[in-house]
């Protein structure tokens, strides 16, 4: 077999390995697994993306990032990395060498955002500070308790490349394609799909999925403590217009200029903790960004890439903290389903201001958490505009 002769001759380069993989032969995959050959599955990008157009943003809730960064080295080493330390984390961060990165902590947050608004960036919300200070076209956000996933053949998945592939190909929110993403390799539009809509629209947000620990709420995870997600679905789809989704900042990417201000750290639960089950800021953020995308005619994709999410936290202990949020969702979802933004709102910032005013007017009297969320949204828009304008002036000097 040519494969075996190539191995014996010591001529198995990355390029040659890809040629063997492309044959799709089971014998090749079996030998790769037997010999423990490390392969990173990188999708073919539809457009040429420069390395300096991408920021990787990581919110650090734990001090030792050594294993995390080393596992992600094959994907992160090409790009600039922004690490934002949770303002409540006292220990010094441990970060291995060999990365192009900037690290931000509480003093930086206070200097840029002001101590009065630093509460916006507590806990998992610290990642939003990275969104704020980034000046790159694309931002990819990964949590510090997640590792690269492997596809069913055992190959490492390049989550960065897949996110960029999602963002640089059109989305189709106005007519569902039953073959999922028609722009993916080997796919196309189905019979009956209107030709007038086949050009698609800009994809502004890519929502990846994860293996191992699924994104259940605390009640579900407590009841299904041993359940793990092992199902890898090789597909990407556009979320239809007017359909809401509860995105998770664990594994997302977005075009910063297109929707950055809509990713807002606003909804804070009373007694919010440091486990994913104890927070709802990203769910609220996802609802905001989706209705903004629908209003502005932008697309949102979900599916690939997968990451591997490690176990963390106690769902039963978290249940008391999250239960408030579970109840609030029964009021939140009907509200967002009914929101219609005025035609005069033509920018992301204007859209978020309109949503904030509606939250204050229609939900503010139900629970103080909504009034606080509305104010946080307005503060966020003001901060985004202030930091953006000051950075533009600095770049021009």
UniProtKB/TrEMBL annotation:
Keyword annotations: Cell wall biogenesis/degradation, Glycoprotein, Golgi apparatus
Reaction catalyzed: UDP-beta-L-arabinofuranose = UDP-beta-L-arabinopyranose
Subcellular location per the Swiss-Prot or TrEMBL entry: Golgi apparatus
GO CC annotation terms, alphabetical: cytosol; Golgi apparatus; plasmodesma
Any single GO BP term: plant-type cell wall organization or biogenesis
Record site feature (Required for activity), residues: 191, 198
UniProt GO MF annotations: UDP-arabinopyranose mutase activity
Major location category of this protein: Golgi
Enzyme Commission number(s) from the entry: 5.4.99.30
Domain of life: Eukaryota
Glycosylated sites: 191
InterPro entries named in the record: RGP (IPR004901), RGP_fam (IPR037595)
Keyword field contains Glycoprotein: yes
Its job: Probable UDP-L-arabinose mutase involved in the biosynthesis of cell wall non-cellulosic polysaccharides.
Family: Belongs to the RGP family.
Protein name: UDP-arabinopyranose mutase
Record organism: Gossypium gossypioides
Organismal lineage: Eukaryota, Viridiplantae, Streptophyta, Embryophyta, Tracheophyta
């Amino acid at each position: 077999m040519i494969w075996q002769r190539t191995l014996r001759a010591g001529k198995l380069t990355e390029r040659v390995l890809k040629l063997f993989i492309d044959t799709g032969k089971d014998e090749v995959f079996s030998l790769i697994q037997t010999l423990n050959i490390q392969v990173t599955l990188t999708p073919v990008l539809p457009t040429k993306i420069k390395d300096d157009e991408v920021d990787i943003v990581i919110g650090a809730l734990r001090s030792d990032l050594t294993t995390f960064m080393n596992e992600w080295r094959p994907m992160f080493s090409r790009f600039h990395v922004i690490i934002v330390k949770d303002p409540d984390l006292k220990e010094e961060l441990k970060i291995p060498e060999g990365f192009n990165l900037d690290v931000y902590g509480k003093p930086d947050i206070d200097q840029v955002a002001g101590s009065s608004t630093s509460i916006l960036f507590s806990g998992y919300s610290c990642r939003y500070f990275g969104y704020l200070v980034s000046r790159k076209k694309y931002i990819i956000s990964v949590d510090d308790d997640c590792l690269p996933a492997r596809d069913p053949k055992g190959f490492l998945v390049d989550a960065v490349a897949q996110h960029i592939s999602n963002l640089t190909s059109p989305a189709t929110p106005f007519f569902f394609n039953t073959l999922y993403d028609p722009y993916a390799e080997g796919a196309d539009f189905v019979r009956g799909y209107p030709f007038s809509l086949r050009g698609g629209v800009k994809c502004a947000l890519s929502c990846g999925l994860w293996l191992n620990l699924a994104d259940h709420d605390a009640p579900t995870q407590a009841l299904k403590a041993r359940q793990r997600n092992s199902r890898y679905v090789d597909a990407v789809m556009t979320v239809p217009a007017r359909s809401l989704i509860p995105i998770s900042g664990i594994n997302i990417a977005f075009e910063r200029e297109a929707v950055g201000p809509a990713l807002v750290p606003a909804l804070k639960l009373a007694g919010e903790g440091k486990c994913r089950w104890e927070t709802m800021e990203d769910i609220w953020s996802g609802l905001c960004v989706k209705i903004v995308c629908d209003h502005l005619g932008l697309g949102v994709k979900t599916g690939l890439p997968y990451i591997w999410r490690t176990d963390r936290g106690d769902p039963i202990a978290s249940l008391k903290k999250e239960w408030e949020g579970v109840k609030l969702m029964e009021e939140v979802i009907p509200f967002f389903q009914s929101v219609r933004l005025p035609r005069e709102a033509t920018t992301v910032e204007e859209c978020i201001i309109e949503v904030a005013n509606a939250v204050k007017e229609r939900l503010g009297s139900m629970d103080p958490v909504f009034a606080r969320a509305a104010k946080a949204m307005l503060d966020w828009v003001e901060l985004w505009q202030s930091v953006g304008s000051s950075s533009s002036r600095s770049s021009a000097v």
